[in-house]
Specification:
- By secondary structure, this protein is an alpha/beta fold.
- The protein has three domains: about 5-80; about 85-145, Arc Repressor Mutant, subunit A; about 160-440, P-loop containing nucleotide triphosphate hydrolases (Rossmann fold, 3-Layer(aba) Sandwich), CATH 3.40.50.
- The chain has 14 helices and 14 strands.
- It has helices spanning about 5-30, 40-80, 85-95, 100-105, 115-120, 200, 215-230, 255, 280-285, 300-320, 350-365, 380-385, 395-405, 410-415, and strands at about 95-100, 125-130, 135-140, 180-185, 190-195, 205-210, 235-240, 275, 290-295, 330-335, 365-370, 390, 420-425, 435-440.
- An eleven-stranded mixed β-sheet has the order 5-4-14-13-12-6-11-10-7-9-8. Strands 1-3-2 form a three-stranded antiparallel β-sheet.
- Helix 1 runs antiparallel to helix 2 (about 40-80) and helix 10 runs parallel beside helix 11.
- It is elongated.
- About 35% of the residues are buried.
């Protein structure tokens, strides 16, 4: 209904009611032969008062109707958005909001707010910090919203398959080792616990891939936490500063509640870190009882970040060249943004050097974990050198084709439907590939 039509409708009804009132008054005067108030002037004031009330009544009613229409017009585009998309929009605009404010903006009961916000917290998009009796929400990694390279939108809930029949696998599960998560059953239910002795397998190379927001960094942190608990050193090349949160205890209430599902200790914890911006001697990394974080966040050019990592790896190769070969894991190196090594501006020699470094370091007891958006950028020889493959959700056709060739076509069909925190897990020693739900982390996500 247009505003003009609403005005006309209001005027018509006002005129009808005023006419009926006038007719009724005239009939009453003729019938009784006297005025309602006793005098003519009193009746005039009485009807003037009633007329004013009618006018105010229609003015208020019309205004509410127009506001309702304007609100409908304003909200029409928003209704096509999910509540999570609206939450991100408000956080981009306002910066920080309390849980009460966000619930009010989203027009949801505050008790239901976690349903929309917690998946974004778990995927590293939103940060929640407790202040008094409420939470303050803000965007944590704004860069994750800017990725267009194989960008996975963690808000696309409708793309997830709630009822899924997972491929059947013949798996020989270990009964001891590092607890990484639980086997996923049909409809994403949690099955047996997944134990893996990382001292044995991390040395042989790990490839973690998936779109932004799929859970690959959390999985990488699970592996690192397990090695740190075994007092093994770790070197992480980090360009986002998110690995520095290893030193902080996990305060995410929703993640803490999930600890019991994975048989985890109920107390979160942080880990010992040393942060460097220039490569130190290999002895300093190996002897440090914790994780060494090589902070690359101040280097903005992608080619420069690759060069800095390559120089560090070259120094490590020089050191280990004089060391004896070892079947014991001595160090795990984590290379984030491994897809950058395949960019045209970086050059083809970069990926060849990375492949060489992985193979040579392995003989010396050094494992390398590559965390990447896309696996299809790496040549088959490079992929084959990574013994453990962990594939998170992606929609990129090139990756799905590659997964279909490496594993089976039924897994390439499952990968686009994986919920956040679930991945296809393939280690030849365990048998067929299978889907795993990764445990929460002890440190701050």
């Amino acid at each position: 209904m247009s505003v003009l039509h609403a005005i006309k409708k209001s005027l018509v009804w006002f005129s009808i009611e005023l006419a009926l009132l006038t007719i009724g008054y005239c009939a009453l005067v003729l019938w009784n032969g006297s005025y309602i108030t006793g005098i003519l002037f009193g009746d005039i004031l009485f009807f003037a008062f009633l007329g004013t009330l009618f006018i105010l009544d229609y003015a208020v009613a019309s205004r509410n109707e127009f506001q309702s229409q304007d609100t409908t017009l304003e909200l029409t585009p928003a209704t096509t958005q999910t509540k999570k998309e609206q939450a991100l929009k408000y956080l981009r605009t306002l910066g920080n909001v309390t849980s009460g404010q966000l619930a009010s903006l989203l027009e949801v009961d505050i008790r239901n707010l976690s349903k929309f916000v917690n998946p974004l917290i778990m995927t590293g998009v939103i940060e929640a910090r407790k202040q008094g009796k409420t939470f303050i929400y803000s965007l944590k990694n704004a860069h994750t919203l800017l990725h267009t390279h194989n960008r996975h939108d963690s808000l696309e809930e409708t793309d997830y398959v709630g009822h899924a029949t997972l491929p059947k696998s013949d798996v020989k599960l270990a009964t001891e080792g590092n607890m990484l998560g639980r086997i996923a059953l049909d409809d994403w239910k949690l099955g047996e616990f997944l134990y893996l002795p990382l001292k044995k397998y991390a040395q042989k190379g790990i490839l973690v891939s998936g779109a932004s927001g799929s859970g690959k960094t959390v999985a990488a942190k699970v592996l690192v936490e397990e090695l740190l608990d075994d007092h093994l050193p770790v070197l992480v090349f980090d360009s986002t500063k998110q690995w520095e949160r290893l030193k902080e205890r996990n305060t995410n209430d929703e993640m803490l509640k999930r600890y019991r599902l994975f048989g985890m200790r109920q107390n979160s914890k942080g880990y010992k870190l040393q942060i460097i911006r220039e490569m130190v001697g290999a002895d300093e990394v190996l002897d440090y009882q914790g994780a060494t974080i090589f902070d690359l966040s101040g280097i903005h050019e992608e080619a420069d970040r690759v060069e800095r990592v390559a120089l560090a790896l070259d120094r490590l190769l020089e050191y280990f060249d004089s060391q004896k070969d070892s079947d014991e894991l001595r160090l795990l190196i984590v290379v984030e943004e491994a897809h950058l090594w395949t960019l045209k501006e970086v050059g083809r020699d970069a990926i060849k050097f990375l492949d060489k470094a992985v193979r040579m370091l392995r003989k010396k007891g050094v494992g390398v974990m590559l965390v990447s958006h896309k696996i299809s950028d790496f040549d088959p020889a490079m992929r084959s050198s990574m013994n453990l493959s962990i594939f998170f959700r992606t929609k990129y056709d090139g990756d799905l084709d590659t997964i279909g060739k490496i594993l089976r076509s039924e897994f390439s069909k499952i990968v686009p439907t994986l919920p956040v925190g679930y991945s296809v897990f393939h280690l030849a020693d365990l048998g067929d590939p299978f889907v795993v739900a990764w445990r929460p982390i002890y440190s701050q996500p």
